[in-house]
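Private note to self, pasted from the team thread so I don't lose it. C-alpha cells:
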C-alpha cells in the first residue's frame, strides 16, 4: 500500500484541545483508520510542524479525502506528500 508523510500544524483550537485531552491524538489515529488510512508511526516535533506521521492509504484520493476531512474541523492544517521507498527509487533508476 502506498505510504505518505503527513506534516501537521495545530491551530489555536487544536492546541487547546490537545492540552485539555492529550488522548485526542490517538483518537484521530482511530478516525483515520476508519477512513482506510493506517498510521505507521507518528512523532511530535519542534519547529514549523507539530506532528510528522507516516501513514499508508490505498491511493492518493483516499489520503486527500482524509486530509480534507481532518482539516475541515479547524483544529489542524495538514500537508501530505507521497513517500517513495529508496529501494524502489533505486530500482526504477536502474
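Design output:
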Amino acid at each position: 500500500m502506498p505510504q505518505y508523510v503527513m506534516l501537521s500544524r495545530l491551530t489555536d483550537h487544536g492546541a487547546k484541545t490537545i492540552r485539555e485531552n492529550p488522548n485526542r491524538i490517538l483518537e484521530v489515529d482511530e478516525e483515520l483508520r476508519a477512513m482506510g488510512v493506517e498510521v505507521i508511526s507518528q512523532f511530535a516535533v519542534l519547529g514549523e510542524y507539530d506532528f510528522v506521521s507516516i501513514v499508508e492509504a490505498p491511493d492518493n484520493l483516499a489520503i486527500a479525502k482524509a486530509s480534507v476531512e481532518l482539516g475541515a474541523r479547524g483544529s489542524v492544517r495538514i500537508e501530505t506528500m507521497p513517500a517513495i521507498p529508496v529501494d524502489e527509487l533505486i530500482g526504477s533508476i536502474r
